[in-house]
Amino acid sequence: MDIRHLPLHPLPGKSSVTSSWQNLSENMGQGLSLDQIKQFRNDFEKESTALHQLDTGEHQALLVTMYEGTEKLLNKNISPFEVTSYLENLKSNARELHQQGVSIHEFRHSLNWRSQSTLADMIHKT
């Protein structure tokens, strides 16, 4: 069975990134367009405001890292699932770093390093 042809329906209570994933699945094989990246970014921004435990500097660092990371995915043949996983992992990493109580400099550096490492793996697989 080829799962690319199964209908995609967001589950109740799931993130709005699921809607981006559904829209992107129709364009597999063409690489991610700027409009698709913009939709992922928009959904991510809406969801990241719910990370109340992050302070303003950490939240800003999270958004900058997301923007830089998604820019590298432009025109790459990356599946919507991989993009969603990357973005969810980014939020998880931000929460983890916040809980560790690292300085804002270390927060930015670690989050960026983790993002770049994940992106390199994703792009290398394509």
What keyword list fits this structure?
single chain, 126 residues, mainly alpha, 5 helices, 0% strand, globular
Q: TL;DR?
A:
This protein has about 130 residues and is mainly α.
Mind explaining what this structure looks like?
The protein is mostly helical and 126 residues long. Helix content is 67%, strand content 0%. It contains five helices and no strands. It has helices spanning 17-25, 34-48, 56-73, 80-100, 104-125. Helix 1 runs antiparallel to helix 2, helix 1 packs antiparallel against helix 4 and helix 3 runs antiparallel to helix 4 (80-100). The protein is globular, with a radius of gyration of 15 Å. Mean pLDDT is 80; it is low at 1-21 and 24-28.
Biggest sheet descriptor: none
Strand content: under 5%
The total count of helices amounts to 5
- Helix and strand element order: HHHHH
Distance between the terminal alpha carbons, to the nearest Å?
22 Å
Structural class: mainly alpha
Write down the overall geometry: globular
What's the pLDDT, averaged over the residues? 80
Radius of gyration, in Å, reads 15 Å
Instruction: Identify low-pLDDT runs.
Output: 1-21, 24-28
Helix percent band: 55-70%
Number of strands: 0
